[in-house]
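Handout, section B. The chain below has 426 residues.
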Amino acid sequence: MIKPSQSGRLIVLSVDGLRPDIYRAAEQRLRFPNLNALEKLGASAESVETIYPSTTYPAHATMVTGVPPRTHGIYSHLASLDPTEKARPWSWFAAALRAPALWDVARASRRRTASLSWPVSAGAAIDHSIPEIWNPTAPDPHSDFETPARHSTPGLFGEVAKRLASLRGKADPDKLRGEAALYLWNQYRPDLLLVHFVWYDAKAHSFGPASAEALTALESADEAIGKIRDAISTDPATALVVLSDHGFLPVEKEAAPLVAFVQNGLFARGADGSFSLRRLGTVSAGGSLAVYWLERPSADDRRRLEAAMDQLQAAGAVQEIIGREKLEVLQADPDAELMIEAAPGFTFSERMEGPLVNNSPRDRGTHGYLPSRVGMEAMFTIVGCDIAARKNLGRISIQQIAPTLAKIMGLPADILASEAKPLDLR
């Protein structure tokens, strides 16, 4: 029997955007048999409190480091503060992490590591890695294979692609990732395998978190989870973790704070109609928007920003303006001047033209709100030897995940920078 202090293997499957109530709902349980079966077989959180803003890249960074964004340095999905940039790079590269990740400490302990499309893993010291990265100018990142191949472990992308050739054009991204994960597991038997499923999140954005399209996408992830669980069922040394990074909320309106910023002269406009930076930078997280002074603002700049905030509040788009003091409490981006929290039913875009509020948004679901907002809860379930069945872990912090996984692998308690305590799984 594997004790938490001994060496264990881990497969960690992240279902992006999955709220626990989505698959636990009585009327949906038959559609997601594997997610619900795992909760009976192992220990599960009622909910997981995520980070701010509640978005994929900073949350996944916290999952593998055990520290908040202010410590690990990944504050948003974007690596650029310039909303006028046509193709903004994302926070793809592990070199940006300012705290050790699970793959670092596992490899330092001579454990074999593997990852598949895990955010913020490009260039990481992972033995078998196909990172999540794409060309930002590509119209569809799911069709860009050259970029992840170039940043993968040499030869690995082609090796896996050859194995999955029969599924190309016939399967959604999560089915492909599930089959690729099985290949990595069977071929290399890593001590730590990290996999990121994305199809539910994509459909929840487009159609809403409880839409028929999103639930159909979740069925694909559930099926992949079941296949992976079956593949490791005879291996008592391996624990299976299924988790998510944040929740999701439906939206009815899209507000464009940058329209108000433009109207108040905070961005420059050329003769050809194009926009360029002055002193203000922004990053939208959907449910919130971060504002940055790129140069020291004048008193007039501050008045212009205040006037733009008044416009947004008058339009009913703002729940709260979060200043530096609260951002410090939330352990969020120390460089942000402020963050704007969207009102219920609103999502923020970085559109710079058109109406301030659009009643027909492109997306019908989003996240990025405060972690205390109902609906932003993530999920966590773990199954394995010496892990209690049907154990309710209550509401946990996303920062507890990495120390818990390190403990399962038998790594020293102080090997990560996290101050969070591991979960009691027995």
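Note. Residues 253-362 form a domain with the Gyrase A; domain 2 fold (CATH 3.30.1360). Compare this with the example in section A.
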